[in-house]
Design brief:
With 344 residues, the chain is of the alpha/beta class. The protein has 13 helices and 10 strands.
């Protein structure tokens, strides 16, 4: 089984490809729909997710898509399961398996991710449905004395337990430790906090016997807080992020697929491109993307619940996927973002 998992992990970070995250909870999806006047119904969520996974040409740039529990059980209007559609289109089905965050007792409102109870049975059920990989997100706040040692250890241990359970059941785990952009922290504080988090995550993964070349790491970029008075340029973010990764991530990890973490669409792409152009740091793993809103947002706005707008919305999704594919190869240029390029 482990060879199969390694093969899947390599496929997820294949050259020029990244991962589409469409695993928003129903509540989050409904909130986004509400802002655009889209009915917050299961049928509309189904229509939107079908729009995404059936976008013509998407598989040229996207290796897999992370689904939410509702979505992995859904089918198209003809009754064909989404998982079958994805496989036919060359997109690996993935599944979010954590159950969200709660406040970690004894901390300053820091979070712990839940979902380990019953995880083995849930994972086995998802494997039967056709899932090939899974995702678990841990979140950390950067601030004065934050993240705390308690939050770092608790979340890292949960990530490692999740990863071990997934591998035992036949799923490649995406390990997602996200340091939030909320706050006014500097890029240097972000780097220090990220080193502390990632170092502990890999200690815990080793203790749990997780096979590193059968996982994908989904980290946040090293970037200043959104309300920080000084924001670093693209090159500085790329350099700081690569420095931190080379100090903390073992060379045998299958690949790194960044989350966008609230960055704008084009900035997330530019940062990824700068990392892949950088020649200062040795990158022993593929460096690519696993974006949610930074891939979806133009598509969601174009669609806005109108079935007639689906082809145009899909074209925007494929465009963003292509831009990030180029960035994963160090070949992106902002000039490619023109409207003419999108319609071509």
């Amino acid at each position: 089984m482990i060879d199969f998992l390694k093969e899947t992990a390599r496929a997820l970070v294949a050259e020029g490809k990244g991962i589409l995250a469409i695993d928003e909870s129903n509540g989050t999806c409904n909130t986004r729909f509400a802002k655009l006047g889209i009915p917050q119904t299961e049928d509309k969520r189904r229509e939107y997710r079908e729009l995404l996974i059936t976008a013509p040409g998407l598989a040229r740039y996207v290796s897999g898509a992370i689904l939410y529990d509702e979505t992995i059980h859904q089918s198209d209007p003809k009754g064909q399961p989404f998982v079958e559609i994805m496989n036919a289109n060359g997109i690996l089905p993935g599944i979010k398996v954590d159950t969200g965050t709660v406040t970690l007792a004894g901390t300053d409102q820091e979070k712990i991710t839940e979902g380990l109870d019953g995880l083995r049975k849930r994972v086995e059920a998802y494997v039967k449905l056709g899932a090939r990989f899974a995702k678990w997100r841990a979140v950390y706040t950067i601030g004065r004395n934050l993240p705390s040692p308690k939050a770092i250890v608790a979340n890292a241990h949960a990530l490692a337990r999740y990863a071990a359970i997934c591998q035992a059941a036949g799923l490649v785990p995406i390990v997602e430790p996200e340091l939030l952009m909320d706050g006014d922290h500097t890029i240097e504080q972000s780097a220090s906090a990220t080193i502390g988090v990632l170092s502990r995550v890999f200690v815990e993964l080793e203790e749990q016997g997780v096979v590193l070349d059968a996982i994908v790491l989904k980290p946040s970029m090293v970037i200043a807080g959104q309300s920080a008075p000084a924001q670093s340029g693209v090159a500085a973010v790329a350099a700081q992020t690569l420095r931190v990764l080379t100090e903390t991530v073992p060379a045998n990890v299958a690949g790194i697929a960044f989350l966008s973490g609230g960055q704008s669409n084009e900035l997330a792409t530019a940062h990824l491109d700068a990392m892949n152009r950088d020649s200062t740091y040795r990158k022993p793993w593929p460096v690519t993307f696993s974006y949610g809103r930074a891939l979806q947002q133009p598509t969601l706005e174009k669609w806005s619940g109108d079935s007639a707008a689906i082809p145009a919305a899909q074209a925007l999704l494929v465009h963003r996927a292509r831009m990030n594919s180029l960035a994963s190869l160090g070949r992106y240029s902002a000039d490619l973002e023109s409207a003419d390029t999108v319609s071509a």
